[in-house]
Design brief:
- By secondary structure, this protein is mostly helical.
- The protein has a domain of 219 residues.
- Helix content is 60%, strand content 4%.
- The protein contains 11 helices and 3 strands.
- The protein has a 3-stranded mixed β-sheet, covered by helices on one side.
- Helix 4 packs antiparallel against helix 10, helix 5 packs antiparallel against helix 9 and helix 7 packs across helix 8.
- The radius of gyration is 26 Å and the shape is globular.
- Keywords: Membrane, Transmembrane, Transmembrane helix, Transport.
- Belongs to the purine permeases (TC 2.A.7.14) family.
Length: 317
């Protein structure tokens, strides 16, 4: 990877503008704020990180039960990455003709596909955890990925611990331990203790797996850059890796949906509702259909004082 090293000041030159930015600090905060591409990326990450868990938890609270579908949607937007890739390709083509559309090597492609499988499994574990945990508890547990990232970075890319990283690892570990000691205290209504414990463990597993994904990605980029004649690790190459990762993770979760029969889980419910609607008592029926258990009809009394309308619900799992 291209790593900028701080330039050493010459001894013969006096130091000027002590408060100004030094040559080694090329990625200062002022320069980052002047880069619109980085600002857009930061805004999208903040919005997705904050809003994604809320929407996903709201889906489960309102009767949703398709965990494979929820995991599928987390990476299904990967085709949007083709837009910046096309823009980059057009600029490279104008600068130098005959440039390839993709800059990835076959080895980096295989590595990105493997990372994509890990990402798909991580999305599934995270979805299972959020189905049984409150958003606050899930967010605290998933933040322990920073500790796992620091540990795996030390093992894989030899990144040393600093005082701030050690402090963060200790605080996050203590927070997760305190939540574990009070397991079940914030259990949502309708969630059993076994489901809560399973969600707790799966969320920690998702944090550990995502903590492994980032060092593996950095390791694959470093090995790619170390090969003679390989293209440098640029923004375009990283976007290409993200495209392959998103595609592989989406295919993984789509296969899981097929195996789990998520595409046809509501077909029996709809057919049952049609049959009951055609042979009903003539009153209006309000129908709510969710995947999971077979259709269940609420009991209705035949007394004259009973209302003429009945409600039928396909209860979620």
């Amino acid at each position: 990877m291209e790593v900028e090293t701080p330039a050493q000041p010459r001894a013969s030159q006096p130091r000027k503008n002590a408060g100004a930015t030094q040559p080694g600090q090329s990625y200062s905060s002022s320069r980052l704020l002047r880069n619109p591409l980085l600002v857009v990326n930061f805004v999208l990450m903040v919005v997705g990180t904050a809003g994604g868990p809320l929407f996903l938890r709201a889906y489960f609270l309102h009767g949703g039960a398709r965990k494979w579908l929820s995991a599928f949607l987390q990476t299904a937007g990967f085709p949007l990455l083709l837009v910046p890739l096309c823009v980059s390709f057009s600029r490279r083509k104008k600068a130098a003709g005959g440039t390839p559309f993709f800059l990835m090597t076959p080895r980096l492609l295989v590595a990105s596909a493997g990372i994509g499988l890990m990402t798909g499994l991580d999305d599934l574990l995270y979805t299972y955890g959020l189905a049984y945990l409150p958003v606050s508890t899930s967010s605290i547990l998933i933040s322990t990925q920073l500790a796992f990232t620091a540990a795996f970075a030390l093992l894989l890319v030899r990144q040393r611990f600093t005082a701030s990283s050690v402090n963060a690892v200790v605080l996050l570990s203590v927070g997760a331990a305190m939540l574990g000691m009070n397991a079940g205290g914030d259990r949502p209504a309708g969630v059993s203790r076994a489901q809560y414990s399973a969600g707790f463990a799966m969320t920690l597993g998702a944090a550990a797996l995502f903590g492994l994904v980032l060092p593996v990605m950095e390791l694959s980029q470093a090995r790619h850059a170390a090969r003679p004649g390989a293209a440098p690790v640029t923004y375009t190459l990283v976007i290409e890796m993200q495209l392959v990762i998103g595609l592989t993770a989406t295919i993984f979760t789509a296969v899981g949906m097929l195996v789990n029969n998520d595409f046809h889980s509501n077909e029996k419910c709809r057919q049952s509702q049609k049959r009951r609607g055609s042979s009903g008592s003539g009153g209006q029926a309000t129908t709510y259909c969710s995947p999971g258990r077979p259709p269940r009809t609420s009991a209705s009394s035949s007394a004259p004082s009973a209302p003429s309308s009945s409600a039928r619900r396909c209860s979620p799992a």
